[in-house]
């Protein structure tokens, strides 16, 4: 099957230019973390091919490379992508990733996250593609027994989202042994922020994440912020998370790809800063940065929310040579605020 122009779009450059570049398939390349990574890949000299069904992603967010629109479960579409040009590696972002939704509708998480990963892995292996980078999550750890959390911490997810990602991580171990598939699973903590030029940022409908919701209050689009629980066993009673700038997540993917290209074996890495911030601290910082008052209301804690998730990122520092550059609270909130004020999509 060939791509029709409706499904397939080349951005900026003619196709012949790409013949000399290494192509990397980016599922979910029109989504929040995917689109920043696509841009970073292009800036690093690679040719990104985004595949996105645009259910959550935005066509306008794909600023570089190719965009194929369609569903990951569409095996014929996947086949045609791998046939069209040599793909050296796959970065797999496309998934459902909402804790609350995963508790209310776990079927989506097993069918879409686990089911689609199975299809993708089958097709890529049948084309001899053996480098795979997975968007995994700190939600695979569940309620931490110790903080900061390193990669050896037991994984006992308390929501179906984390469970679905853990399934894939476990599959990857066996696929490595049996088929020689080399993978890096990147366990993201809490992605935040936007591109420095405010061209790309977070845009979900409806928006459930903390920082964009606070900024919608600052903008006057939401009346107040609900704080989900203030009786957790933390210093101020609200949940603590380790926020990491989306540009730092993007650069970790390039480092992970290079790690695999050097012939290193499969690995898992935490991507966080090692520093946690409570919901109340984030609200205070956002109030100062936006110079707006943020009215809040405390409501019951969300099902499936651990009180505290903070990474020990040392393994990524040491093995990938990766260090967060933009993940101080001020940069994360101010880039997100600039994006929020002039969003393109
Ligand atoms: N949160 C909150 N109010 C909101 C959205 C989120 O209090 O309107 C809290 C949530 O309970 C969690 C933290 O903020 O403790 C980060 O939540 P988010 O949804 O941004 O990311 P998640 O941790 O679910 O991946």
Mean pLDDT: 94
Note the overall shape. Answer: globular
Portion in strands: 15-25%
Helix-strand category: alpha/beta
State Rg: 19 Å
Cα distance, first to last residue? 31 Å
Low-confidence regions = 1-6
The main sheet orders its strands as 1-4-3-2-5-6-7-12
Helix content: 25-40%
The profile of the biggest β sheet is: 8 strands, mixed
Task: Report the total helices.
Answer: 11
Count all strands and give the number.
15
Give a description of the structure.
This protein has 345 residues and is of the alpha/beta class. 38% of the residues lie in helices and 19% in strands. It contains 11 helices and 15 strands. The chain has an 8-stranded mixed beta sheet with strand order 1-4-3-2-5-6-7-12, sandwiched between helices. The protein has a 3-stranded mixed beta sheet with strand order 13-10-15. α3 (75-84) runs parallel beside α5 (106-126) and α9 crosses α11. Residues 99, 190, 208-210, 213, 225-228, 239, 241, 279, 302, 305 line the site of uridine-5'-diphosphate (UDP).
Quickly describe the structure.
With 345 residues, this protein is an alpha/beta fold.
Entry keywords:
11 helices; 345 residues; binds uridine-5'-diphosphate
Helix and strand topology:
Elements (H helix, E strand, L loop, with lengths): L7 E4 L3 H4 L4 E5 L4 H12 L3 E6 L12 E5 L5 H10 L2 E6 L6 H6 L1 H21 L4 E7 L22 H20 L2 E7 L1 E3 L17 H10 L5 E4 L11 E2 L1 E3 H16 L5 E5 L5 E2 H12 L5 E4 L8 E2 L4 H7 L8 H13 L4
Parallel strand pairs: 2-3, 2-5, 3-4, 5-6, 6-7, 7-12, 8-11, 9-14, 10-15
Antiparallel strand pairs: 1-4, 10-13
The site of uridine-5'-diphosphate (UDP) has 15 residues, from helix 7 and strand 9.
């Amino acid at each position: 099957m060939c791509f029709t122009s409706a499904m397939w779009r080349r951005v900026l450059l003619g196709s012949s230019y790409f013949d000399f570049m290494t192509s990397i398939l980016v599922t979910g390349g029109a989504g929040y973390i995917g689109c920043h990574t696509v841009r970073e890949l292009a800036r690093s000299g690679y040719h990104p091919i985004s595949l996105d069904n645009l259910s959550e992603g935005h066509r306008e967010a794909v600023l570089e490379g190719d965009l194929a629109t369609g569903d990951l479960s569409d095996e014929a579409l996947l086949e045609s992508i791998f046939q069209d040009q040599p793909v050296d590696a796959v970065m797999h972002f496309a998934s459902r990733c909402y804790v609350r939704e995963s508790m209310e509708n776990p079927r989506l998480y097993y069918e879409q996250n686990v089911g689609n990963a199975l299809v993708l892995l089958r097709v890529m292996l049948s084309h001899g593609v053996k480098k795979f980078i997975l968007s995994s999550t700190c939600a695979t750890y569940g309620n931490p027994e110790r903080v900061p959390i390193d990669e050896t911490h037991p994984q006992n997810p308390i929501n179906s989202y984390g469970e679905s990602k853990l399934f894939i991580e476990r599959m990857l171990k066996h696929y490595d042994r049996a088929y020689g598939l080399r993978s890096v699973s990147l366990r993201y903590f809490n992605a935040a922020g936007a591109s420095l030029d405010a061209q790309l940022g977070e845009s979900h409908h409806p928006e459930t994440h903390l920082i964009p919701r606070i900024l919608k209050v600052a903008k006057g689009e939401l009346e107040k912020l609900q704080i989900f629980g203030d009786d957790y066993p933390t210093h101020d009673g609200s949940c603590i998370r380790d926020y990491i700038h989306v540009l730092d997540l993007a650069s970790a993917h390039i480092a992970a790809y290079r790690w695999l290209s050097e012939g290193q074996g499969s690995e898992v890495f935490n991507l966080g800063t090692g520093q946690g911030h409570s919901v109340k601290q984030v609200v205070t910082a956002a109030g100062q940065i936006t110079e707006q008052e943020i009215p809040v209301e405390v409501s019951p804690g969300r099902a499936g929310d651990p009180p505290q998730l903070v990474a020990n990122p040392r393994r990524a520092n040491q093995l990938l040579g990766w260090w967060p550059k933009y993940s101080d609270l001020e940069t994360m909130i101010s880039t997100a605020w600039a994006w929020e004020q002039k969003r393109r999509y």
